[in-house]
Amino acid sequence: MALRQYYKLYTLLLVSNMKRSTYYYNIKSLSKIDKYASAKTAILEIYEKSNNTYGYPRISKALEKLGYTYDRKTVYKLMKELKISSIIRVKRRYKRGKLSCICENKLNREFTSDRPCLKWVTDVTEIKINNEKLNLSVIMDLYNREVKAYSISKYNNEDMVIDSLKQAIDKTKDLTGLMIHSDQGILYQANQFRKLLKENNIEQSMSRRGNCYDNAVMESFFATLKCEFVYINKFENTEQFKYELEKYIDFYNNYRIKANGLTPLQEKEIYLVA
């Protein structure tokens, strides 16, 4: 446009080998106001706050709370224009194992709960930081999918799962009717772990052998954790990992939007005021 001030249009079109109609089309396109400009700004802000993990379904939910009424297809299109997308990984598929159990599968894949602290699920996963392996024990409340407690250890031992269980118990005022579900791992069969459950009148439930679907919520959480946090970050050492993990768990419990449009904290607050 600056050259237009000094040269005739005919000369510029001749030098650039551009048709007159193309020139006027481009001028008209540049003058158009982007009606999605505000929404794009909001999308970028939401995306950054989610640590670049939100895809178009969650961003659509977040936009609704801000007063935008675009459907998911539009949000998907705008994200493509902005060249942003959620970082995801392909989830592994598991084969079903033979059915057997040490403790009865009382949960029986009923992954919903009428109130907080009625059903907990727990599991352990291994995470490799540089060349060091860490074990992470997590306890989650099925009511709102809140991470109640977690513990990290170099060793996959009984102390780790007992520590996370003690944390969860200490944070809970009323343990009435509580059940905790896990796989048949040897850590959950340990005498001290079972003793702690018995002392607090917590009922124990276990998945059938080799059947990860019986504890699908924990499997899903670990996949999300590794996808949204572990795989996309580089940690200098285990101490940095522990520090950043604490921040991610806080984000997961208090800010990360679930499929129902609420965070775990919001869902819990709704129950408490009802």
Question: How much strand content do the residues show?
Answer: 5-15%
- Rg from Cα: 26 Å
Rounded to the nearest angstrom, the distance between the terminal CA atoms is: 62 Å
Query: Uncertain spans, ≥5 residues at pLDDT below 50?
Result: 94-101
How confident overall, as mean pLDDT? 88
Fraction in helix:
40-55%
Order of helices and strands: HHHHHEEEHEHHEHHH
Largest sheet: 5 strands, mixed
Structure description:
45% of the residues lie in helices and 14% in strands. A hairpin with a 2-residue loop joins strand 1 and strand 2. 24% of the residues are buried. With 274 residues, it is an alpha/beta fold. The chain has helices at residues 9-16, 20-31, 37-49, 56-65, 72-82, 158-170, 186-189, 191-199, 216-230, 238-254, 264-273, and strands at 119-129, 132-141, 146-153, 179-182, 203-206. It is elongated, with a radius of gyration of 26 Å.
Would you summarize the structure shown here?
This protein has 11 helices and 5 strands; from the N terminus they run H-H-H-H-H-E-E-E-H-E-H-H-E-H-H-H. The protein has 274 residues and is α/β, with parallel strands linked by helices.
Summarize the SSE layout with pairings.
Blueprint (H helix, E strand, L loop, with lengths): L8 H8 L3 H12 L5 H13 L6 H10 L6 H11 L36 E11 L2 E10 L4 E8 L4 H13 L8 E4 L3 H4 L1 H9 L3 E4 L9 H15 L7 H17 L9 H10 L1
Parallel strand pairs: 1-4, 4-5
Antiparallel strand pairs: 1-2, 2-3
Helix pairs in contact: 4-5
